[in-house]
Design goal:
The structure is a homodimer. The first copy, chain A, folds into two domains: about 10-55, Arc Repressor Mutant, subunit A (Orthogonal Bundle); about 60-195, Tetracycline Repressor, domain 2, CATH 1.10.357. Chain A has helices at about 10-30, 40-45, 50-55, 60-80, 85-90, 95-105, 105-110, 120-140, 150-170, 180-195. With about 210 residues, chain A is mostly helical. Chain A binds a DNA duplex (30 and 30 nucleotides) through helix 1 and helix 3.
Amino acid sequence: MEEVQTHRPDRRRERTRQLLRDALTALIIEKGYDAISIQDITDRANVARPTFYLHFRDKDELLFSSVRDIYEDLAQRHYQMEWTPEAILSAETVDDSDFQHIAENAEFYKVMLSKRGSITFLLQVLDYLTEVTMKDIISLMVPEGSQSRLPPGFIASFLAGAEIGVVRWWLANDMPHSPQEMALIMHHLCTRGLAWAVDMPVPPSDFRVES
Amino acid sequence: MEEVQTHRPDRRRERTRQLLRDALTALIIEKGYDAISIQDITDRANVARPTFYLHFRDKDELLFSSVRDIYEDLAQRHYQMEWTPEAILSAETVDDSDFQHIAENAEFYKVMLSKRGSITFLLQVLDYLTEVTMKDIISLMVPEGSQSRLPPGFIASFLAGAEIGVVRWWLANDMPHSPQEMALIMHHLCTRGLAWAVDMPVPPSDFRVES
DNA sequence: CATTTAATTTACAGTGTGTCTTATAATGGG
DNA sequence: CCCATTATAAGACACACTGTAAATTAAATG
């Protein structure tokens, strides 16, 4: 017996929800995610504590209600382009929207991808990146009917993890490069690997894993 | 005025600490890290709750007291070998101790690197991997007096993140490959990059970032 | 066996959670 | 503009967990 609550439009509702969202993001930057109590959020938002539970089950639900549209927007921006194998591997068409977005919300990510952040959030981002990368890998292989040497899921997880690592380095070092530069560096390292990065040759290998 | 407590050896002490450590790891696998209370731990260990605080400040301190020696052991195993630039880039001398260790503690890592885990732990592992990788990168460049195209910290963060991503994939897919295979696959992908992985050529590039 | 130290037991104050009730205020529809 | 509806406020409650304290009991060491 699922009782689905349908809400007629009401300014008070959206206003309160927005106040709570804003309070949360401000508090995250100030004191870290874990240290925030529901009381903190409602105090900051000038809302009674029981009101919180009229809108969100817990802190995580509030957090994800804040970021969901951001990732929809990012994915949409990414897929505005028609990705072909050539475009993905070419340095001319590198997509820097991820790094752009991180730069615009640097304070937020600096906290949320640190010990003061939330593992749920970090893994959500990682899964998002894996999924997007996965689609790119697929579009890289399917049109050719070609087989990659490694399982696509493996490669996507590899690249997504690498991106998180690099973003953390970027933020920890106060963003010494522009988003465009970062995307380009990342692209070179991803496509060409460590041997290129340290400018040393490795022998060719026909190593292959059946997926 | 630092009051350093010096403990003469006493079986009761080490016994209690070990009981608490064992209780924690068992509980982590059962219900996830976050859901565990101090009470849970002491109940499982058959120890009074105030006793916990005679040994550890909080849950995190207990956790890290459990894993510290593991990582010392791993690092020591890794550095038993004299790493030269050739050895690091060669597929003959791949070090699989990390994957071996993960496989031996698969249940534990499956939880701790998931939403039911702990961000502090995940980042601790990430930082450990970054540090170890960093030393490898350095040993790759210094003896030659050569310069890498990218800042070593960048590369190390990239590879460490990639390793976490891959380990998560490996665990999520119930370890379809042996630790040795995983280390080998990882090695190929790290050194040769995406172009190799999907078996498509990219033009050479003399792109370089001054560190 | 005696001394030292660890652990137990009980208790307490503090903090946060999730829910409930009653009263008040704002909103959108007619 | 008024009214029925719905959101919010205010206060209170039971519950769980934390960190610490005091007095007592138990165990290990030499």
